[in-house]
Amino acid sequence: MTESHVPFWHVTVLTLFPEMFPGPLGFSLAGKALEKGTWTLEKLDIRSFTRDKHRSVDDTPFGGGPGMVMRPDVLDAAIRDAKARQEAAGLKPGRIVYLSPRGRVLDQALVREIASEGTLTLLCGRYEGIDERVIEEHRLEEVSLGDFVLSGGEPAALCLIDAVVRLLPGVMGNVETAGEESFERGLLEYPHYTRPPVWNGRAVPEILLSGHHEKVRAWRLEQAEKITQGRRPDLWSDYLASRPAPKVKKRRARRASAEPTKTTAIPDGNGGSIEG
Length: 276
Prior knowledge:
- The chain is an alpha/beta fold.
- The protein folds into two domains: 3-165, Alpha/beta knot (3-Layer(aba) Sandwich); 198-242, no CATH class.
- It has eight helices and eleven strands.
- It has helices at residues 28-36, 72-88, 108-115, 132-138, 154-165, 175-180, 213-231, 233-242, and strands at residues 9-15, 39-45, 58-59, 69-70, 95-105, 119-124, 141-144, 198-199, 202-203, 265-267, 273-275.
């Protein structure tokens, strides 16, 4: 790959199962963009960086315990090779993400960050995880799909790549569509309807048939807010916090009259008076 053919985005995947890629990413929008060279994928087999006859990538954990841990020397060699390949291709090595259940939860904000950068390296762990010293040595960024455990990092890597590729220039046909999707405004998406207008006794909301674009936009925002508030209180709180405070109109201070205040004597009922 020469500098004149540098793609919008390149990802290198370090994995024990390179045959899992591109997998579903070879189809639909991501697959078409891959064929066009909008993004490029390189997969490196971690096992190819072993040095013993058994091609061992893991070993028992110090301190005891179940399972196996991926070796630091093998992973270090794989990461350094990935960087060297990227530099040789005219790419600037970017962040290295380790897919881990203890990492930062992947959200749309992070997806946009990654999409704006030219290069990404993904490390797919297996077994009980990887040696902590690799994370420290290469300053790996740990990212998780959520509070659940997968058999390895590969399924998570596929999801992350798909989310990023959708945001690359020219991948999605309608640019407006991306801005209306869930999480782009901090809200879940509003309901969608299509033909027929009445199905199984259920009618499409009349506002969507009105042709009044402003009212439709207002209705969709209202629905998105309602759904987010009911289903994701965490997102709703963040959304409320991010909204600009309402502007308060400042009233002009009344000029004080130069004339002395007039008082009126009011009988107090006891023969005296009260000034008012």
